[in-house]
Amino acid sequence: MNAGLFFVLATLIAYPFEGVCQRQGIRGQVFWLSGNQMPGPGRAVTPGLGIKREIHIYEVATRNQADQQEVFFSNIKTRHVATVVSDADGRFKVKLPPGRYSLFVKEPQGLFANLFSTSDEINPIVVEPRKFTWVSITVDYEAAY
Asked: What does the mean pLDDT of the chain come to?
């Protein structure tokens, strides 16, 4: 083996490419919920159904860093980090570096999000080193509570 190739291989082993060896990120499930969800006598609560959707991940964004129309957003001003598609049951997993992110579900009307922090961050998720953060996203803009 020539010295140049050995050096490259040794460097890759000692300092692996960040994207290949990430052991943290976000995993979760996307659910669809619609119709009357008000509890009542003799009425069972309808569970959410897992759905296939595109999930867009941005560096954490606040409401004043995006255009908002009800629960739909557009023109997010923070950096778009990743897009992942959930399977037919709504499950997804994406590797990301540690940090704070905003998650949006793509719908025909725009990017959906319905959770906010006390500092107005849109659907904020924290990814910690060597951990996958679990999230459950309920797309419920057609539900009544």
From this structure: 88
Gyration radius (Cα) of the chain, Å: 19
pLDDT tens digits for range 54-95:
999 999 999 999 999 999 999 999 999 999 999 999 999 999
- DSSP string across 41-92: TTBPPPPPEE---EEEEEE--BGGGSEEETTEEE---SPEEEEEE--TTSEE
Is the sign of the CA dihedral 75, 32, 115, 127 positive or negative? negative
pLDDT in tens, 115-135: 999 999 999 999 999 999 999
∠35-40-44 over CA atoms, to 5°?
A: 65
Classified as helix, coil or strand, 10 is helix
Structural domains in the chain plus CATH codes? 22-144 (2.60.40.10)
Residue 19 has pLDDT above 80, yes or no: no
Closest to 109 in 3D by CA, of 65, 56, 55, 72: 72
Closest to 121 (Cα-Cα) out of 55, 30, 56, 59: 59
